[in-house]
Amino acid sequence: MGMVGGGEGAFIGAVHRMAAAIDGEIELVCGAFSADESRSQRSGAALHLAADRVYSDYADMMRLEAALPASQRMQFVVIVTPNHLHFPIAEAALESGFHVLSDKPATLDLQQALRLQEIVKETGLLYGLTHPYTGYPLIKEARARIAAGELGVIRKVTVEYTQGWLAYAEEAQGNKQATWRLDPQQAGISGCMGDIGVHAANLVEYVSGLKIAQVCSDLTSFVAGRQLDDDGAMLLRFDNGARGTLAASQVSVGEENALRLRVYGNKGGLEWEHLQPNTLWLKWSDRPTEMLRTGADYLGVAAAANTRVPMGHPEGYLEAFANLYLAFAEQVRARQQGLEASERAADCPGIEEAVRGMAFIELAVAASASEIKWHDMPELQPTATETDHV
After folding, report:
1. How far apart are CA 246 and CA 193, in angstroms?
2. Cα gap 235→20, rounded to integer Å
């Protein structure tokens, strides 16, 4: 793989590299880690890359890598830049013949996401989006049990993702991560909801199998001087008539990455927390609550396929992230060999999730600014590429 972004001082780039390396299936061979040439070269040297495979311009990287023999060039591009660069880099990569795996959100706005969807369809190349919380073994188990009807008809979904790291004006103190995430030119029209609320929305749809159909939104910015939201709450209506709530906050003092999901049907419910990812609770009205644990023999095929170590050994964020990388790598390999991707490989967020995520972010902001209570999610038709598990 090649990487754009993720150089010195970047947080998520290092996470991506660790996740990609866990299974030994992916090699980082090149990168444009910074637009500053010296910084990009220092980053590449620290990663033990040859100087001639380290670039300061992503367009040069696409052109020069494409000119290399197939046995040497990168096969896919990982995008870990601020949001405003996601679309132009993805466009350049796809049009140069490279598959793309991008950090979320996919683009700066919905218009770009829809154009990206067209480019993916036109090129026929693979596109993946890193919503890593879908990679946890017990999230796979929760999804499978709901799909099998164990909880019955889903009635209620509650999800929350709270952090406290932006409770104060970190951007005024030179915090690089805070600065770009709160800059509309780099982050887009939403701060908190675009950064972590979209993860919560994606997780809800992934696990429940339902689609958000309508929202009622209330976003705010508590820290003076901010142009983008740092807190928000939403009411949700789903396509089967179920109701839900979604809360996202980056000003909840003392919280770390407190992602919590609860789903209730007419037969039972379940609960999962990111801070205790190896435990899934199943709740019933006619028998005791059950505790499921990662690595146990009683879990299903999907959970087992995404588990690496025996029961009792914690698997966490990096392993969940790595599950997406492994699935995407298997897609690339299947494409290279002219084979159909396996069910496991296909279970990786793609262009459909990319478009829905941007639609969700824009709807959350628009609904919050409106006096109208309920707002419909736009109808987003999947492309032929999406139905082919890309």
Report:
1. 10
2. 36
Regarding beta strands 290-293 and 276-284, do their DSSP bridges make them parallel or antiparallel, or are they unpaired?
antiparallel
**Cβ proximity of 233 and 220 under 8 Å:** no
CATH 3.40.50.450 fits 2-132, yes or no: no
* CB distance 324 to 22 below 8 Å: no
Assign domain 136-310+350-369 to its CATH superfamily: Dihydrodipicolinate Reductase; domain 2 (3.30.360.10)
Between CA 338 and CA 144, with CA 380 as vertex, the angle to 5 degrees is 65
Q: Which residues of 1-40 are buried (b: 16+ CB within 10 A; e: fewer)?
A: bbbbbbbeebeebebbbebbebeeebebbbbbbbeeeeeb
Q: What DSSP designation does 228 have?
A: S
Mean pLDDT of all residues in 104-109: 98
> What would the pLDDT profile of 112-123 be if each residue is shown by its tens digit?
999 999 999 999
Whole-angstrom Cα distance, residue 159 to residue 115?
Answer: 30
CA 19 vs CA 12, 14, 61, 133, 214: distances in Å: 11, 9, 23, 13, 35
Average model confidence (pLDDT) across the chain: 96
Q: Which helix (H) or strand (E) holds 290?
A: strand 290-293
pLDDT band of 380, cuts 50, 70, 90: confident
pLDDT on residue 383 = 47
Q: Given pLDDT bands bounded at 50, 70 and 90, which one contains residue 381?
A: low
DSSP string, 131-188: -GGGGSHHHHHHHHHHHTTTT-SEEEEEEEEE--TTSS-GGGGT-HHHHHHT-HHHH-
Answer left, alpha or beta for residue 312, where phi above 0 means left and psi between -120 and 50 means alpha.
left
CATH 3.30.360.10, the chain: domain bounds: 136-310+350-369
Residues of the chain with CATH 3.40.50.720: 2-132
